[in-house]
Amino acid sequence: MSHTNKVFVPLNVAVLTVSDTRTLETDTSGQYLVDQLEKEGHKVVARQILQDNRYQVRAQVAQWIADDSVQVVLTTGGTGFTDRDSTPEAIECLLDRRIDGFGELFRQISYEEIGTSTIQSRAFAGLANGTLVCSVPGSTGACRTAWEGILQKQMDSRQGPCNMVPHLTPAAACETRG
């Protein structure tokens, strides 16, 4: 079975920035993802900024995973090694299946940009309830690396030989939420 579809399928995406300091006005990483998603033709159905609190992050991501209108959740921030970084601990327990290659490929691409510092990235992805969940570091550069190197193509139904779109639950009718 071919996983390519020559017709573009816009996806419904929720974007979460995990940060103790950013606001909508200063969140260049989340805004970068929103801009790229919209430019590509996807629909941003929700956007949120939460402090790095594993239980609040887990609750928000779980809500989006349970929402039939959300097909993809992108998170930025909280993937490093400081005491406050808890995005992997917050979200990984929600995943039905990990996509190990996502973090591996992200670090491989990132190595070309930042060298061995990439080992401190705990970027990861997985599937939960038919929803693609991807978590990347909080810098705008890291978001650009993830978008240009992985996400843009894997979220495009026309990408061959395969992409993530066939694995996602078809979206229910939805309205934009904040």
UniProtKB/TrEMBL annotation:
Tagged with keyword Nucleotide-binding: yes
A Pfam family this chain is assigned to: MoCF_biosynth
InterPro entries: MoaB, MoaB/Mog-like_dom_sf, MoaB/Mog_dom, MoaB_proteobac, MoCF_biosynth_CS
Top-level taxonomic group: Bacteria
Purpose: May be involved in the biosynthesis of molybdopterin. Can bind GTP and has low GTPase activity. Can bind MPT, but has no MPT adenylyl transferase activity.
Molecular functions per Gene Ontology: GTP binding
Entry-linked PROSITE patterns: MOCF_BIOSYNTHESIS_1
One Gene Ontology biological process: Mo-molybdopterin cofactor biosynthetic process
A GO CC annotation given for this chain: cytosol
Gene3D superfamilies: MoaB/Mog-like domain
UniProt keywords, alphabetically: GTP-binding, Molybdenum cofactor biosynthesis, Nucleotide-binding
Family designation: Belongs to the MoaB/Mog family.
Protein's name in the database: Molybdenum cofactor biosynthesis protein B
Domain MoaB/Mog positions: 14-158
Pathway assignment: Cofactor biosynthesis; molybdopterin biosynthesis
